[in-house]
Write a structure and sequence with these properties.
Layout: H1 2-9, H2 15-30, E1 34-41, E2 44-51, H3 70-75, E3 81-83, H4 95-100, E4 104-112, E5 115-124, H5 134-180
Antiparallel strand pairs: 1-2, 1-5, 3-4, 4-5
Helix pairs in contact: 1-2, 2-5
């Protein structure tokens, strides 16, 4: 928690660096090789940022257009979706289990304001020996809240920058009109 707090509060990190560090912290905490931040794209889900590597999944990749995969379930749920051993949990028909060999998964909804915009999830090709604990569910939700906060802050900064530019343009136009009469 201390590391997460330091990352979120730091003014030394860019948003991209914060996202990368948060995903890295999640992988360390959950003992998984892959951490992802995904974005809802209409009916699809796109991987935006990723910690770790996978031969089939990387930033910019659209996850399978199935309605039956881990991340889709997370988007449609207000709860953490997790399975230490996806095959044993009955998820063997899931596209990410079947096609991408992700045997362990924990994810939660990422919201900005009141809008579900994507997921924060952690996965591994190997099942975990232990089930995900309530404390890990809570930590995952906290990671998602931190990412959501960072995305909201960026959105507000972009809106403020656009408003400042518009104001400056209007003031320049008014000044020009006064001079030209």
């Amino acid at each position: 928690l201390r590391d997460l707090t330091n990352v979120v509060a730091s003014t030394d990190y860019s948003t991209r660096e914060k996202v990368d560090r948060i995903l890295e912290l999640g992988c360390e905490r959950f003992d998984t090789d892959i951490g992802m931040f995904t974005d809802r794209q209409g009916d699809g889900i796109e991987v935006v940022r990723m910690h770790g590597s996978h031969p089939d999944i990387e930033p910019g990749v659209q996850l399978p257009p199935s309605t039956e995969h881990y991340c889709r379930e997370v988007i449609d749920s207000d709860e953490v979706v997790a399975a230490a051993d996806a095959g044993a949990a009955g998820w063997s028909d899931d596209a990410l289990y079947r096609d991408s060999d992700l045997a362990c998964y924990a994810g939660t909804q990422l919201t900005v304001g009141d809008e579900a915009v994507g997921t924060v999830c952690f996965a591994d090709a190997e099942p975990r020996a232990e089930q995900f604990t309530d404390a890990e569910h809570t930590f995952l939700e906290l990671l998602a809240q931190c990412l959501g906060y960072e995305l909201e802050r960026n959105r507000q900064e972009a809106q403020l920058t656009a408003l400042n530019e518009l104001t400056r343009d209007l003031m320049d136009a008014e000044s020009a009109e006064r001079v030209c009469g």
